[in-house]
Design goal:
The chain is mainly alpha-helical. It has helices at about 1-15, 20-40, 75-80, 95-105, 115-120, 145-185, 185-200, 205-215, 220-290, 295-330, 335-370, 375-440, 445-475, 475-485, 490-500, 515-540, 555-580, 590-615, 620-635, 645-650, 655-670, 675-715; strands at about 55-60, 65, 70, 90, 110, 135. Helix 2 (about 20-40) crosses helix 17 (about 555-580) and helix 6 packs antiparallel against helix 9 (about 220-290). The strands form 2 sheets. Strands 4-1-5-6 form a 4-stranded mixed beta sheet, with helices on both faces. Strands 2-3 form a two-stranded antiparallel ribbon. About 30% of the residues are buried. The longest helix is centred in the middle third of the chain and has 70 residues, at about 220-290. GO terms for molecular function: ABC-type transporter activity. It is found in: Membrane.
């Protein structure tokens, strides 16, 4: 051991005695940190600087008229974008925008066509046309910029859609509120009108019998005509009121049905989304248990987090659905809505049980370091139960609740249409009846003729009135009350609910304030490997002869020279990590842990690279570079390893970068000590493996390496 340290002491003395060598050593120690710091600083807040990303906006919208009002959605969009500084919007004409995208002046172009407002307004007409926004992107200029601008374009389209749907529904429900209030005020009159028509139809036989008797007993005609005139005004008044209100009722019912269909289709979408999330939970549970032996603790925690997120998503969707139905049921008190609400409470109970069982499984897994089969089976049973209940709720909704409301609206529309036709055909008949009655009262000498005319006219009126009466009997008073209640709902609430049926609540598990802190692990670890490569490229791995070196074995020289490389690598790691914290002010939850991981990475990487170069010479340098390239792509430092090709997913556990980057992340975002221990142990195993390789192979490969090196020098192309 003493002989080994003689080599290290000799190297340190040589560095100190020669200023030129010392200057180079200082440069070697500083350059890796510059590499890391410059890259980290360059990516510090790239997504926060998207306001500097030029995107052309061309507004060709000519505007349109909707409900008697002029609108220009394109101008409104431009106005909003001028106040939006998340992207560098440039407002130009079509020619400037197109040339700018082609030349690379703008990364993308968003064009609002001439007929955009016109097509958007057509969505509430009988012949809707789907509007378009033209998006052009220059992917040659920059691939990432294209992705950013595409997200911005999609967000813009989503905002336009949401705002339009909300405004249209608010307006619709504002109008429906007026109709609903009028119907509510005249509700009793409408009921009386319906009852009057039905009663008149029932008494028609009595009226005809009376006229027959009058025809044969003209002496008492005036008395009977008074009785008839006292009955018919109800019919005349009722028919006139019904004719005045039939058009409004039909419009109300149609608008109500369209609004209900839109709202309940969104509810159906919520239920189906919850069903899909529940299925995903079941799949994740199967993945957790079936592959748990191959999963790291960190990956298991990620799966637990995904399952919890999906459970929360189901709860949020179902809560929005429950609140909406509850508000309707407060007024209607419908048995099918009550049944669905009861089913939703059962689903919530199942979800809460599933969430508690998942928490118990996670806690036990953290304690005993393995998956409890019984708890997994319990959670699978919970998930299956939740899935079945959601399926049953969807079936209950589609089979009973939605058809019942649609049936009410359909019956009202059908009845009011037929009533309008019948009322139109009876209007002239009632006028004739009144004329005949007035003439009949002028004298009993016309009694016989008048009664004949009345009988004939009433026989015609009897069929029409009977048909109208039958249609009105199909309209239930409770159904009318339910529709009036829905029409009186708050317009702002209904408009916002239909446009945004639920809100997304985001919670960061390990929050990191900026992108630079997130990229610090990969750039720092990469810099430390580059530093180890620089050491082997500039410094020799062979021991220069000095007094006493002839007594050293090859293995002693290998370990003695290694100490020098480790010492310099540790200096590199210390500079990089301390600079990350003090110079760049990188966010860290545990700064000492980050420095410790930097030293551990430097120690490990220096042994790996030194051993490769010491054993194989220039070939070892090439191998170290190949390892660097493969690890950049396959350690999961920039993109999730799950989206990389299968080769990298398989090889990731065998890369030192994996554990170096993982350790830095634990220190920066917040340590999970099981993951910290795994990273340290893994790096230690790499040290053991390469120390054994060096100790076992150094002597047998030394002569081969020297022979190969000599041949390479003879070629005259090697560096002296």
């Amino acid at each position: 051991m003493k002989s080994i340290f003689l080599i290290f002491k000799r190297d340190i003395k040589s560095m100190v005695k020669h200023p030129g060598a010392l200057l180079i050593i200082i440069g070697i120690c500083l350059i890796p940190s510059l590499y890391a710091w410059l890259n980290i600083k360059a990516s510090w807040n790239i997504y926060g600087n998207t306001g500097e990303l030029p995107v052309a906006v061309v507004n060709n919208d000519l505007g349109a008229s909707m409900n008697g009002q002029n609108i220009n959605v394109g101008s409104e969009v431009v106005k909003q974008l001028k106040d939006n500084h998340e992207i560098g919007w440039k407002f130009v004409n079509e020619k400037q925008g197109t040339m700018g995208v082609v030349s690379g002046k703008y990364y993308a172009l968003i064009e609002i066509p001439e007929d955009f407002s016109k097509d958007l307004a057509s969505l509430i007409s009988d012949n809707p046309v789907k509007p378009e926004i033209i998006y052009k992107v220059n992917t040659k200029a920059n691939a990432v910029a294209g992705e950013i601008t595409e997200v911005a374009a999609n967000t813009l389209v989503g905002q336009i859609t949401t705002n339009f749907v909300q405004v249209v529904n608010e307006k619709a429900f504002s109008y429906l509120n007026v109709f609903g209030d009028n119907m509510n005020k005249n509700k009793e009159e409408l009921k009386q009108l319906k009852n009057s028509i039905i009663n008149t139809n029932k008494n028609m036989n009595f009226i005809l019998e009376t006229l027959q008797w009058v025809n044969s007993n003209s002496i008492n005609l005036n008395e009977y005509l008074k009785d008839i005139k006292s009955t018919l005004p109800y019919v005349n008044s009722g028919i006139e009121n019904l004719q005045n209100n039939a058009g409004n009722i039909e419009l109300l019912v149609k608008n109500t049905k369209n609004t209900l269909n839109t709202s309940f289709n969104n509810l159906n979408l919520n239920l189906n989304n919850s069903l899909k999330q529940s299925q995903n939970i079941n799949e994740l549970i199967n993945v957790l248990y079936s592959e748990q032996s191959n999963k790291t603790k960190q990956e298991q925690e990620a799966i637990f987090s995904q399952i919890k997120s999906k459970i929360d998503s189901i709860s949020s969707s179902l809560e929005a659905y429950e609140n909406f139905l509850a508000k309707i049921n407060e007024k209607i008190n419908n048995k099918n809505i009550s049944k669905v609400l009861k089913d939703l409470n059962n689903i919530k109970s199942s979800i809460n049980k599933e969430k508690n069982d998942l928490k118990n499984l996670q806690n036990e897994t953290n304690k005993v370091k393995e998956i409890n089969k019984n708890l997994v089976e319990t959670i699978k049973s919970d998930s299956k139960d939740t899935l079945n209940k959601i399926n049953n709720t969807i079936l209950q909704y589609n089979s009973y609740l939605k058809p019942e409301l649609n049936s009410i609206a359909d019956n009202l529309i059908k009845a009011t249409n037929e009533a309008s036709e019948i009322i139109g055909s009876t209007k002239n008949l009632t006028n004739e009846i009144n004329d005949l009655l007035n003439v009949a009262t002028q004298g009993t000498d016309l009694a016989s003729t008048s009664s004949d005319n009345l009988i004939r006219t009433l026989n015609q009126f009897k069929g029409v009135l009977g048909e109208l009466s039958n249609k009105l009997e199909n309209i239930n008073n409770n159904e009318l009350t339910q529709i009036i209640t829905i029409l009186q709902a708050n317009p702002e609430f209904m408009g916002d609910f239909i446009a945004n049926p639920f809100n997304l609540k985001q919670e960061a598990i390990y929050p990191i304030p900026n992108y630079g802190a997130g990229m610090t692990p990969i750039y720092s670890v990469l810099a430390l490997w580059v530093g180890a490569l620089m050491l082997t490229s500039i410094l020799s791995t062979d021991v220069v002869d000095f007094p006493g070196s002839e007594n050293l074995s090859i293995r002693q020289k290998y370990f003695g020279k290694m100490i020098t490389f480790i010492f310099l690598a540790l200096i590199q790691g210390l500079i990089v990590s301390v600079g990350d914290k003090l110079i760049l002010k990188v966010y860290t939850v545990n700064a000492p842990l980050m420095i410790l991981f930097a030293l551990a990475c430097s120690f490990t990487f220096s042994i790996i690279v030194y051993t490769l170069v010491s054993l194989f010479g220039n070939i070892g340098k090439a191998l170290a570079i190949v390892c660097l390239v493969i690890q950049i792509a396959g350690c999961g430092g920039t993109y999730p390893i799950q989206i990389d090709p299968k080769f990298f997913r398989v090889m990731q556990p065998f890369f030192p970068f994996t554990y170096g980057v993982g350790g830095f992340r634990e220190a920066i975002a917040g340590p999970l000590f099981s993951s910290v221990a795994l990273d340290f142990i893994s790096l230690f195993l790499f040290i053991i493996v390469f120390l054994l390789l060096g100790a076992l192979l150094k002597k047998p490969l030394d002569k081969i390496k020297k022979k190969y090196h000599a041949k390479f020098e003879e070629a005259g192309i090697s560096e002296e």
